[in-house]
Specification:
The structure holds 2 protein chains of 2 kinds.
Chain A (H helix, E strand, L loop, with lengths): L1 H27 L20 E6 L8 H10 L30 E6 L5 E2 L5 E7 L8 H5 L5 E3 L6 E3 L9 H5 L6 E2 L8 E2 L5 H4 L6 H5 L5 E5 H12 L6 E4 L15 E4 L20 E3 L19 H11 L4 H21 L4
Chain B lengths: L26 H23 L15 H13 L2 H11 L9 H22 L20 H27 L3 H31 L17 H27 L6 H28 L12 H17 L9 H25 L14 H24 L12
Classes of the chains: A alpha+beta, B mainly alpha.
Chain lengths: 342, 393
């Protein structure tokens, strides 16, 4: 009896290994994006809004950074270069943090003399939440603290619901949500596109103060059309660049400006397709991998993979219920046999 | 060789288990207690000044050893009860019956302390109960599934272990009543770890390119389930050999030999699947240069070492070989899980580095020391271990 059981177990293990190898092939080896365990990508929110950042227009004045601090009541961040006893300390963040929701960074190469040149040049990059169409941070949050607005698509965070697990920090492909580790009651901080200002028909702080229109607010499809217009421009051409809200609705109409295109744009519009698309887009004359953005990424969001596995295994809890039924049957039969169920 | 053991015919089953007895206050006990006290002292700082005051956690590495070791690896140590319940009650392998109760106890500690460790790590621990409230539930979250499943399983483990308490305090009526419905909780106790141990792997799928191609695959749930089973077997074998030496009890040789056979199968399945998965994903080249290559080989060689140590059937009856093999498998499982949760991580927009701080390590040490303290108290004072005087020996 036990010999046949052992053979059964051996066969079960071998069969299981073979089945798993077959599963490997169908799951991981299927041609992208038609993966066996993948859910449908999410569509853009109906009234999706965002920012278009044009690196070639950015002059690195960082007005957006101080406006962001003011709009969101964020504390100053003293950079590592400032002595601790300097009483005239400046707000000098170098990266996003629990105190800084928006930061302008600079790429430099060689002697860094020519703006928007990859070689011997420099270029600016604005970092803030990109408000993904299919955000990982929302997918991972166990307590609905991170949410995506059904209409505007703005990804926002509710600290009163948050348990502080930092799964959003870990999962964000762009490294955006930040936690305050030096506070006994620390919380997650990230850009929420100044939704409190939008509610009063005011522009997000950064887009409001940008003097060149490098940070432009608008509906994502409008911003994408504008990005396509810009990337098609040739060096030497003159183009019109709007400021504030691309449609002039939010925060009132503003004058744009004419400017000569000095360096050819990259044809790549960052955020158009990356990881299922983002509501905030970027255009640049320097390749985006130089600007520290992940470029070798799929065109679907990672939640399509993890939720695909999860919702296949746990669809309606039918699978677990069936397995439990079988387990109960065997456990009941075998504990009766063995008289001593512990 | 019959599959059912002596207790099958024994008139009163609860005489099978007996407290080991002996002095409780020993040198190892006091050392473990000292580590618990040190961890307690550091915890005061953590709750007074924040996670950053005691740990090296950062936004690049928001999860460190408190998650990777205390929870992800600690709960794998807790899979002893899972595999033994699966063997004895589902596959009806009654010959392993003597090993169930110590295994369930080990699981109870593993999971209970993983839960305690979560509270240390959570940045907003006072909101912890939101995990249990339907109004906050976010069903797409793999972590929600893991959290609810682990919480339920801890309750199931308490019920599975309850007979030991009821026997100790002479509550035979309650013991009999519990016995009648225990089969349902035994079934749940097999289902739940299957769910959350695989989900611990699914948790990292969403990291996408932030996890090295050596480990990033949709097969992560399969690998985590395999290591859970493997480490479950390994901890039972390891603990049996060690407690046989430590408490000078006879070794359950025949059972251990068969059990270690299953352990080898689980180890083989893991190693073969890992290479198949790398090949299918076209990442065989990653073995020689992707992020974390060295640790990939450490993990793989430990697993292969575990297999090799007891590949000859005769070696499965030798305590030394069993100890070496189960130790290697445990180490392999630990390194695999550490690789997926920490080593293989490629943080966005660096540079970031992580190595746990001394305080961070001492908290983890304290939690595992608490496990040792509780183990010694339980084994010496409660009827956990199989009584030596029965035919089992």
């Amino acid at each position: 009896m036990s010999v046949s059981r052992r053979n059964f177990l051996k066969r079960a293990v071998k069969g299981g290994a073979a089945a798993a190898a077959a599963a490997c092939t169908t799951v991981a080896g299927a041609p992208e994006p038609a993966n066996a365990l993948q859910r449908e990508p999410k569509p853009l929110a109906p009234e999706a809004v965002g920012l278009l950042y044009d690196s070639t227009l950015c002059i690195g004045c960082k007005a957006c950074m101080s406006a962001c601090k003011e709009s969101n009541h964020m504390p100053q961040e003293v950079g590592p270069d400032q002595p601790w006893n300097d009483t005239r300390q400046w707000d000098t963040p170098v990266e996003l943090s629990a105190k800084t929701l928006n930061v302008i960074k600079v790429y430099t190469d060689g002697n860094a003399t020519q703006k928007d040149h990859e070689k011997d040049g420099f270029a600016f990059l604005k970092r803030q939440c990109l408000h993904c169409t299919d955000p990982s941070c929302v997918s991972v949050c166990p307590v609905s603290a991170m949410t995506k607005d059904k209409t505007s698509g703005i990804v926002s965070h509710n600290p009163d619901a948050c348990i502080g697990c930092r799964y959003c920090v870990l999962s964000c492909p762009f490294g955006v949500p930040k936690y305050d580790y030096n506070d006994a009651f620390g919380q997650i901080h990230k850009c929420q596109l100044c939704k409190h200002k939008l509610a009063e028909n005011q522009l997000p702080g950064c887009a409001d103060v940008c003097p060149t229109g490098a940070t432009l607010f608008g509906k994502t499809p409008d911003l994408l059309a504008e990005a396509k217009r810009r990337t098609a421009l040739k060096p030497g051409e003159y183009a019109h660049y709007p400021r504030g809200d691309i449609n002039g609705h939010v925060g009132g109409a503003r004058d744009g400006h004419e400017k000569r295109v000095e360096v050819a744009y990259q044809s790549h519009i960052y955020g158009e397709r990356e990881l299922g698309g983002t509501q905030c887009l970027s255009v640049s004359a320097v390749p985006f991998d130089k600007l520290n953005l992940p470029t070798n990424v799929p065109e679907y969001g990672y939640p399509t993979l993890s939720e695909g596995i999860q919702h296949t295994l746990y669809a309606g809890m039918v699978g677990p219920a069936a397995v439990l039924g079988g387990l109960v049957y065997f456990a009941h039969r075998n504990t009766k046999d063995q008289h001593d169920p512990d | 060789m019959t599959s059912l053991a002596s207790h099958d015919t024994a008139p009163s089953a609860h005489h099978d288990h007996a407290p080991v007895g002996g002095r409780l206050i020993t040198v190892p006990f006091l050392i473990a207690l000292a580590f618990v006290a040190i961890a307690g002292f550091i915890l005061v700082q953590r709750f007074a000044h924040g996670i950053g005051a005691v740990s090296n956690l950062s936004d690049g590495y928001p999860w460190g050893i408190w998650v990777a070791i205390d929870v992800v690896i600690g709960s794998a140590f807790g899979c002893a009860g899972y595999v033994m319940a699966l063997l004895v009650y589902i596959l009806n392998r009654g010959e392993y019956h003597a090993m169930v109760r110590p295994a369930v106890m080990a699981s109870l500690f593993g999971y209970g302390l993983a839960g305690a460790a979560v509270l240390v790590d959570l940045g907003r621990y006072w909101n912890f109960y939101h995990m249990m409230m339907p109004s906050y539930a976010q069903p797409n979250s793999v972590m929600l599934e893991v959290g609810l499943c682990v919480a339920t399983y801890t309750i199931v483990l308490i019920l599975e272990f309850a007979p030991a308490f009821l026997e100790r305090f002479g509550m035979h009526d309650a013991r009999r009543k519990l016995s009648k419905i225990l089969f349902f909780f035994i079934a749940l106790g097999v289902l739940l770890p299957t769910m959350h141990q695989s989900s611990l792997g699914t948790m990292m799928v969403i990291l996408g390119h932030k996890l090295s191609p050596l480990w990033q695959t949709q097969m992560l749930p399969v690998f985590f389930l395999t290591t859970a089973v493997l480490m479950g077997f390994a901890i039972v074998v390891w603990e049996s050999v060690l407690s046989a030496l430590g408490f000078r009890r006879p070794m359950e040789t025949a059972e251990l030999a068969r059990l270690s056979g299953l352990m080898v199968y689980a180890g083989l399945a893991f190693v073969v699947l890992r290479f198949v998965d790398l090949a299918v994903r076209g990442q065989l080249g990653a073995m020689f240069g992707a992020h974390g290559t060295v640790m990939f080989w450490v993990e793989t060689l430990l697993m292969i070492g575990g297999i090799a140590a007891i590949l000859p059937v005769a070696s499965r009856r030798r305590g030394k070989a069993l100890f070496v093999s189960s130790s290697l498998f445990l180490a392999g499982g630990i390194v695999y899980r550490l690789n997926v949760y920490i080593v293989g991580l490629i943080p966005a927009v660096g540079p970031w580095t992580y190595f746990p701080s001394l305080s961070e390590i001492l908290i983890t040490v304290g939690i595992f020391s608490l496990e040792v303290v509780l183990y010694l108290v339980f084994v010496k004072k409660l009827p956990v271990m199989h009584a030596v005087s029965t035919k089992h020996g």
